[in-house]
Design a protein that fits this description.
Helix content is 44%, strand content 10%. It has seven helices and five strands, in the order H-H-E-E-H-H-E-E-H-E-H-H. Helix 2 runs antiparallel to helix 3 (122-129).
C-alpha cells in the first residue's frame, strides 16, 4: 500500500471520529437537576450511615489498611478529581497481596478487568457484588465531581488511550450509576460500553435518568455484571 493510500485512510478515520464526536451533544441540563441529585445524595448518606460505618469497621478488621480508598479519575471535559471508594483489595504492603501485572485481562479494550482478581478480599467480593464499595461516591456527588446518573468515571491511563469517538463520553458528568451499569456492566465489551455511554449522552432526559435509577435497584440486588 502506498504512503498516499495510508495517509488517505488515516485522514478518513480521523474525519469519521471527529464527526462522530461532534454529533454528541452535551445534555447535562436535560437530566435531573444537579441540585436535586445532590439533595438525594445527602439523604442517602444519612440513611445509609449505619451501613457505611459497619462496612468500614469490617474492612479494617479483615485486612490492614484504610477502609476508604481514593483514586484520581477523569470527569466531564477531562477534569481530574479524587474518587472515593471502600477498599476491596489488599494493599501492596500486605503479605497476602498478589501482583497481577503479568495477568491477562478478562476484558478486551483499554479498561482492564479480572473476573477472579486475587487481590480482592473476602469482604471485598461481597461489597463489590452488591456495589456497596461505590457508596462513598455519594460524597463525590455532594462535592459536584459526579452526578447520581452518568457514565462511570474512568482512570487517567484509560482516557489517555481513548479514540476521539470514545472521548465523547467525557462530555457528560460521570455518575454513580448509568445506562451501562443497568445494561450488563462488566459483562459487556469495552466498545459496547462506549456505545451505551454515547447513547446516554445523546438521549439524556429527566425521564431517562429516573428510569435508570429504578433499573439500578434489581441490578444491585442481584449483583448483575459485578466482579
Amino acid at each position: 500500500m502506498s504512503s498516499m493510500s495510508i495517509s488517505a485512510n488515516i485522514f478518513t478515520r480521523y474525519e469519521e471520529n471527529r464527526q462522530a464526536s461532534e454529533r454528541i451533544q452535551t445534555h447535562d441540563s436535560a437530566g435531573l437537576p444537579l441540585g436535586l441529585q445532590q439533595a438525594l445524595a445527602a439523604i442517602a448518606l444519612c440513611v445509609l450511615a449505619p451501613l457505611l460505618l459497619l462496612t468500614a469497621a469490617i474492612i479494617r478488621c479483615e485486612s490492614p489498611g484504610n477502609a476508604l480508598f481514593t483514586q484520581i479519575r477523569v470527569g466531564r471535559h477531562g477534569r481530574r478529581f479524587k474518587l472515593y471508594k471502600f477498599r476491596s483489595m489488599r494493599m501492596a504492603s500486605d503479605p497476602k497481596y498478589v501482583d497481577v501485572s503479568a495477568m491477562q485481562s478478562d476484558r478486551e479494550g483499554v479498561c482492564q478487568k479480572f473476573f477472579h482478581d486475587p487481590r480482592v478480599t473476602a469482604v471485598g467480593r461481597i461489597i463489590r457484588k452488591f456495589s456497596i464499595d461505590e457508596l462513598p461516591q455519594l460524597i463525590n456527588v455532594l462535592k459536584g465531581d459526579m452526578a447520581l446518573i452518568g457514565p462511570r468515571p474512568a482512570l487517567e491511563k484509560e482516557t489517555d488511550a481513548y479514540t476521539l469517538r470514545a472521548r465523547g463520553r467525557l462530555q457528560a458528568t460521570p455518575g454513580l450509576t448509568g445506562l451501562w451499569q443497568v445494561s450488563g456492566r462488566a459483562d459487556t465489551t469495552f466498545e459496547q460500553q462506549i456505545d451505551l455511554d454515547l447513547s446516554y449522552v445523546r438521549a439524556q432526559s429527566i425521564w431517562e435518568d429516573i428510569r435508570i435509577m429504578f433499573a439500578t435497584i434489581p441490578v444491585v440486588v442481584f449483583g448483575r455484571g459485578a466482579y
